[in-house]
Amino acid sequence: MNSISIWIRRISVLIVIGLFLVVTCAGQSYPRDTSYTAQSAFQKYKRQFPTIQLAKPSEPGRVRVLKDIPYSWTGNRFLTLDIFSIAEAEPKRFPMIFMIHGGGWKSGHKNMLYPLASDLAQAGYRTCVVEYRLSPESKYPAALKDIAMAMQWVVAHADTLAVDTRQMVLLGCSSGAQLATLLGVSSLWEVPKVQAIVNLDGILAFHHPESQEGIAAAQWLGGTYEEVPDRWEEASPLHHADENDPPILFVHSQYPRFQAGRDDMMTKLQNEQIKVYEWPNSPHAFWLFDPWFAPTVAYIDVFLARVLADQVD
């Protein structure tokens, strides 16, 4: 039996166990905000950008998707993750990209990142799209603990998943980018070491001259800046950054508010650790739409190919 067949059989066992656990716990209710979806974002932005289209995976048939694998029990329900891999993969270990969706820390769903996860899998990565608790269900720092737990789960199953734990990446979008960057530069949570961070339009500081964070941030952080200033500072990646952090790719929209703290953070890091791309005329959630989707995938792939090669060598 070849390595690919063994990998498929092992993963099948995980899926069966996962389905049993999810079905067993079906019916567990929890507060959720479903206002932010790819379709609602499309309806919002198409008035300003009438030619945009929702991005779709370029060759979905080439990608194998393992959905809703439970990785943690919250006390009320299981949290799940999805893993994307190239269907005709060679029998080897692959870099892993952990992907964190956005939605203002209160809404959004991991399925919003399926096109991005699929195309990055086609580029030669394993991708893991993580479900985490949002502010209607649990406040800061629950989301960070959840993502850390998902990463630990993948590392524990690295052999089965054919993951190279020397080549791991955190990628986030909007509020998910804030989470990914914070986990990548902070030592507050037990996160496996990552070799790179990809920040797609995520803030680096909550209380900052460039920041416009308000109600959504306060809901997640459990109070306004005036009420819980230490928490606002602790949740800001800027205040944890130093020259020992992994390389970071920033891809930004045209809106300065989503770059809050970036320039200050760049001064703390060595120039060779940073790569920045900015879309001059784009929606905030550019990674969801054509014509920005494919170039964004290319930017990420080029950046990671260089960084991960350097790290392993």
β-strand percent reads 15-25%
Using the coordinates above, name the CATH class: Alpha Beta
The CATH superfamily name is Alpha/Beta hydrolase fold, catalytic domain
Structural class: alpha/beta
Main-sheet strand order equals 2-3-5-4-6-7-8-9
Average pLDDT works out at 89
Organism: Reichenbachiella carrageenanivorans
Domain BD-FAE-like: 81-254
Protein name: Alpha/beta hydrolase
Pfam families: BD-FAE
Describe the structure.
With 313 residues, the protein is of the alpha/beta class. The protein has one domain (3-312): 3-Layer(aba) Sandwich (Rossmann fold). The protein contains 10 helices and 10 strands. The strands form 2 sheets. The chain has an 8-stranded mixed β-sheet. It has a two-stranded antiparallel ribbon with strand order 1-10. It is globular. It holds the Pfam family BD-FAE.
